[in-house]
Design brief:
The protein has about 475 residues and is mainly alpha-helical. Helices cover about 45% and strands about 5% of the residues. The chain starts with 10 loop residues before the first helix and ends in a 10-residue tail after the last helix.
Length: about 475
Amino acid sequence: MKIKLNKWLYLLVATAFLAACSEDYLDVDSREDISLEDSGVTLKAENFVTATYGMLTEWPYAFSYLGVTEIISDNADKGGRPTDSGADKDVLDELQHNSSSPSIRAMWEHWYKSIGRATSAIEFIEDSEATDNELNTRLLGEAKFLRALNYFWLVRSFGDVTIQGITDPTSRAPKDDVYAYIEQDLLDAIEHLPVKSGYASKDLGRATKGAAQALLAKVYLYEEKWQLAYDYSNEVINSGEYSLEPNYEDLWRVYTENGVESIFEVQARGESIAHGVQQYSQTQGANGGSNGWGWGFNSPSQNLVDAYDAENDEIRKNATIIFAGETLWDGREVSASSQNPRYNEKAYSSANAGSSDGDKNVRILRFAEVYLLKAEAANELGKSSEALTSLNMVRARVELDNVTVTDQASLRQKIWNERRLELAFEHDRWFDLIRIGEAKEAMAADGKTFVEGRHELFPIPNDQLIQTPEMTQNPGY
């Protein structure tokens, strides 16, 4: 089984109406010029929401997203063949990106188009006269969660951004206003969404109350609203809906998708209409040699290997990194003559390997991260005992000794390091380095030059500035 959201079957129908999104993606009409009745088909709220989920499976997440989240960081190198730039993965790897870098443009545009779809869903639901109010309420919560998720990715990447339908398309709202908008969407979602166990099996994988609470805790952490981050982390932990998967390495395999640790993950089928994250596994699979199956991009760095070794963290190292010459858990042999020395095992699919329509669910929020969110917030609140309890829950699973230090500064470093080792290749490392103020030091240790006052944010894409020349550019670009 891959997708349990059998409503994804509506995606082909929904896409016919939703795919055409204005190139002026900051000023998308509230319904993207979609007629509620077209070709004799009445679009339902469910179609709108499902099409918003569908945006998470598109090509930008298979390649551009790798560049702006992992390749740019000390976790990964570009990978691939030395002569293959991957469009701009080489310049991202060297922190030489600019306002014309295609990966940055792709994510800017894709996030705004996703937000446009979510807003269309919200407006359709709020205007709906359907009799199934319970379903409409849930779908409204799902759409608000998805909109908040995309705005969160957007604001942490670009800082001040336009809020569709709220701010003038030529201007940028202060990031504090964007975060407030995200918070309200998530608070609304929490009110509207059922808990994970409240879903029928056919709908497993849709946004839940726990997903909205976990994302809100993460948002509050980025804002350094420690008490609120602590409170919402506790809400998830005390809900009884989640637990840690006993074996860390099992987290990345098909039999634990939507499992006990899963809070929110992108659903994949591995075939068209509702494909997996398009080519996500293929772009990161082993390349070269006698039995390569992918392109080899997003190659784990020696820096990351050293970080695991410094902690004697063999379990997470071997579950995260494929080494050239090794035999994988399913018996697949990785050629010792592969083009790159290391590959991302969290992206590996045993069944699909290098297929374009991959069957790999991509984990967005996990229960282990909630423990780490609580640990960080608790430490900042002076609750070192609670911070240690949460931190050591995560460490115990991978057979590491308990951390016992209670000094706030020392414990803070331990928690930050734990986030890196636990969440490597889950697309947070770069943004963690920015928010904790250690990007310059970390990049220097990886042989890269981080320019303070410039690299904290990505540039507004040049295409956007051509469309809206009144919009300001980020500093340094």
